[in-house]
Amino acid sequence: MAHFTKATSVKDWLNQRLAVEKVEKVMASEYWIPKNINFLWAMGMVLAITFALLLVSGIFLLMYYQPDVKDAFYSVNYTIMRDVDFGWLWRHVHGVAASVVFLVIYIHMFTGIYYGSYKKGREMIWISGMLLFVTFSAEAFSGYMLPWGQMSYWAGMVITNIFSLGGLHMDGLVEWIRGDYVPAQAFLTRFFMLHVLLLPLAIMGLIGLHFAALRIPHVNNQDGEEIDFHAESKKYLAGDKAGSKVMRFANDFMSKDMMVVGIYLIFFFYLVFFQYGFALDPVNFDPADGLKTPAHIYPEWYFLWSYEILRPFSVNIGLIAFGFAQVIFMLLPWLDLSPNAVPASRRGAFNIWFWILLVDMIVLTAMGKLPPEGIFSTIGLVAALLFIILWVALPFITKNEKKA
Amino acid sequence: MHNSSRRGFMGKAFGAVAGVGAVGSLVAMKKTWDPLPSVKAAGFTTLDMTIYPEGELITEKWRGKPIFVLKKTPEMVASQTESQKARDVVVGDSHFMLAIGLCTHLGCIPGYNAAEKSFLCACHGGQFNWAGEVTKVPPPRAFDIPPFKIEGTKIVLGEVGPEYKAMKDSGITL
Ligand code: HEM
Ligand code: FES
User: Fold this and answer.
1) Ligand 1 atom 40 nearest Cα
2) Which of A31, A272, B21, B49 could form a disulfide with A249 if both were Cys (CB 3.0 to 4.6 A apart)?
3) Reported pTM
4) In A29-179, at which residue ranges do the beta strands (DSSP E only) sit?
5) Residue A391: which domain range?
6) A91 in a structural domain
């Protein structure tokens, strides 16, 4: 039987029951971080903080929001925005955070691609990260339905229609997802449930998995150097802090992380107070009308690149290209055949591939926002084809890469 | 030995119970997301076909969806190709383009340009002519035609009449 002694302090009392000291060591002061990293490694923490902002602002919105097709629009645009004291603040924080979180996710992803942080034991970090990306996308889409404005309705219509899978004509599946022939009450309430319960739960679980996946391989570093964390941490604990290649996560690395978070939060609240407009589409300030499509519909900026891959093709080919774009990032660790896990700048052809992919996705994003006419259609088509060609070419480019 | 086979049996017995439970729950969950009977039942709309002006697009509503009604002008009727004739809905001596007003690509409502007698879908640039046929992709097929039944000078949407059945059987509409 476990033996308990009279506690000498509150800490000792807790230690006997919860091993708090041990937990603190494992999670923080003896969780080792390489010294050779830069501010891009703080993006994970920035994402965690942004998720917390979404959660808190969401809880306050939830207290006045009404998931009813008759009341939803007014509960958001009148009750929350005008009646509730500081209601606008929660809405602006929520909207801005939902948009900015994708900017940070993209920076975080491209950092991972640039430094090769998805191979040599880091595959599970990458996969859990991509699953987070997918669930975040679903979370953003379901949240977009809730104000029940024109953009909510028509985005709901178009995106659910994708599930008819073009030539397969699975209209029954679309009606099942909606619970109606068109987006209506059943649709709104079930997306409300997804947005406030099921998807946030999944995200929290996936963040746990993402962190667990980091534990054994540890984070990568600016040179892709394979560090012997066991030996280096011993050196550190023996007193050779300067000679060791690693440092404690807390408080040492954390203080640097939080410095970046501080700068980010200043930028973030600048957007919330003075530049929130980009996160709230003006068309969505008209209530949903099933008999009138807005003149020009487009998704939020973070979905534009994949939308532009769908748009220039006939329906079936478009859907195949779109499906390709959704899953291909997930397969990156197996499409990059080179064993080198070093920065792209030292990887020859891969470096070129990396920058073309980045620019191509920016071009796709820009074209997705413009009406599908004339020269924009053509540029969009070329950029979409280039995206596919790049991914098909990746194994060939990396196969014969020299050992870096 | 004896023990392990007993545990093996208990494991399998639990697996069987859990399996039945899992399948049952999935069925219940699937059915819970089906459209409600009230949604399915509220599905009939009657249109008086004598009131439509020639050459003008009128939008009606059926099952929450827009329905396009365009009474064709004599010039349109005279110029119809075989495939356009096959989509023609004739009530008395009037000819109509009758269709679900949702783009067959991803479901936006295309806008009608009366001067050019054609539809443009703003979502992804699809185009249709006045008879409902595609003139520019991505839409994969002409406008779908809603189930209809002709009753004198009226049309009931949601009921299947012989004219609609013939169109469906010959693959003119889905
Ligand atoms: C809300 C979503 C996310 C949160 C909260 C999050 C959090 C974190 C944290 C705290 C770290 C460790 C610090 C760092 O290296 O930045 C990390 C690392 C990582 N994450 Fe995420 N992440 C998220 C989404 C993603 C996504 C979408 C991807 C892309 C597929 C991804 C891929 C990675 C990779 C590859 C690493 C390892 C970086 C390295 O070893 O250098 N994460 N994440
Ligand atoms: S929905 Fe009409 S072209 Fe895509």
Assistant:
1) A219
2) A31
3) 0.85
4) 32-34
5) 304-404
6) no
